[in-house]
Design a protein that fits this description.
The protein has 327 residues and is an all-alpha fold. The chain has 16 helices and no strands. Helices cover 61% and strands 0% of the residues. α6 packs parallel to α9 (161-175), α7 packs across α9 and α7 packs across α10. It starts with a helix and ends with a helix.
């Protein structure tokens, strides 16, 4: 019975309805007008959309079942090995860096906008490094391995990626004076939208969202980010506000003439949990082992994926530049 209780708790947690059920059980429906109450109504949206997306895919016979299967296994694995690490790192960074902030924000709309822009900058830094530093790519590549875009991809992460990401994002925000209350609000909104932008074509075919495509980051932009096409590689690192991609020259819109190909450039079995989760770590270990000299071994850790000690680089920058030159 204890096992069934644990499974039920995990199911309710995945669906995001635990807090709603607690409020309904208490009978105090006025709680739905509070921040926590509103958040409790928003939490289930993404899981329910995920299930709906899967059902629609089954109806149209278009889902890649192996993508859902592997991403589900990743979700289960991460629940056991990395459940509280990210939360601990956020708390640690808040406690460590709060004293060094030159000023403090307050709970006003303009400081909220400031906090969001700062958070996106921190997100850009983490995400950019995840693509440009081989060791960090080993953590991030799990998220890019699926060869289909759908909401289950939200759960496809190496368990150490969230702590690493939240360490950078939280540190940037706290040093920039963002109060923890504002930080947690931004994290909630950004996390929810960050899940939504993985919605697949079975649910939303053209996800440019009209004029919004110019003002914010849409699912179309994020589909471009997950593409392995030379034109699309290493672009659109932001999450909601694409301001920093435009500032740093990594902004790329989806082109109707270039159909998106999802996945990573390394040959792999995207239906194999071990290859999806540990494949890049194994590949890095092999490159380090065969590299001559300690300097080259170290450079494999910090240089971009595709860098080679022989000089025959196949980094995203090299591949994209060659593609654009020959267009």
């Amino acid at each position: 019975m204890e096992i069934l209780s644990i499974l039920l708790e995990e199911l309710l947690g995945f669906l995001g309805i635990t807090q709603v059920l607690e409020i309904l059980k208490s009978g105090d429906y006025s709680a739905f007008r509070t921040y926590d109450g509103i958040a409790s109504l928003i939490y289930p949206i993404i899981p329910l959309l995920l299930l709906l997306e899967l059902v629609v895919g089954l109806i149209y016979k278009k889902p890649q079942i192996k993508v859902y299967k592997v991403n589900f296994l990743i979700y289960i694995f991460n629940r056991f090995v990395g459940r509280f690490i990210s939360i601990a790192m956020v708390a640690f960074c808040i406690g460590l860096f709060s004293a060094y902030a030159p000023f403090k924000t307050s709970n006003t709309w303009y400081w909220f906008l400031y906090a969001y822009v700062v958070w996106e900058f921190g997100h850009f830094i983490y995400h950019y490094l995840g693509h440009k530093v081989r060791l960090f790519w080993c953590l991030h590549s799990t998220h890019h391995a699926p060869e289909e875009m759908n909401l289950s991809v939200t759960h496809a992460h190496f368990f150490l990626e969230a702590p690493y990401a939240d360490t950078i994002r939280t540190t940037v925000c706290i040093l920039a004076g963002v109060q923890p209350e504002l930080l947690f609000t931004v994290m909630f909104i950004d996390g929810t939208y960050g899940a939504f932008i993985h919605i697949g074509e079975n649910m939303i075919k053209d996800a440019r969202f009209g004029f919004l495509n110019k003002l914010m980051l849409t699912p179309s932009h994020h589909r471009v980010h997950h593409a392995r096409n030379p034109l699309y590689m290493d672009t659109n690192f932001c999450n909601l506000l694409n301001i920093w991609d435009k500032v740093f020259g990594t902004y790329q819109e989806e082109q109707k003439s270039v159909q998106i190909e999802y996945g990573i450039t390394r040959e792999m079995d995207s239906g194999n949990f071990m290859d999806v989760y540990f494949g890049e770590i194994v590949a890095l270990a092999k490159d380090v082992a065969k590299a001559p000299g300690i300097t080259n071994k170290f450079r494999y850790l910090i240089m971009p994926p595709g860098w080679s000690h022989t000089g025959e680089h196949k980094t995203a920058k090299v591949v994209r530049r060659a593609y654009l030159k020959n267009r």
